[in-house]
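Worked example

This section walks through a single chain of length 101. The input is the sequence exactly as stored; nothing has been trimmed or padded.
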Amino acid sequence: MAEEAGRRRAFREWVDDGVKAEFINGETIYYSPAKQKHLEISRLLGGLLHTYTLIKGLGAVWSEKAMISLTRNDYEPDLVFFKKSKSDKFTKDQLFFQLLI
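Given that input, the structure is written out below as tokens.
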């Protein structure tokens, strides 16, 4: 477990907003660019969810490059929702976002 924690720290120091990679179960996973169909669906769903969330004042919806930190993994999901009480605490330069805390 300590070895995996060290690899995760190294991943977090290395990764930036120009890299499409995730840390999953102790391994760095690199991703290829998405196909047009995937991008169009993500944009449509993200736009709809973002608009609804904004109108209702529910929080924030982000797509693609948001790095979500879970217990063992750091993911970049296609879409993610944060309730207002959580999203209001985020800073402009924040790179990792906790879902569980």
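What to look for: Helices lie at 2-14, 36-56, 84-87.
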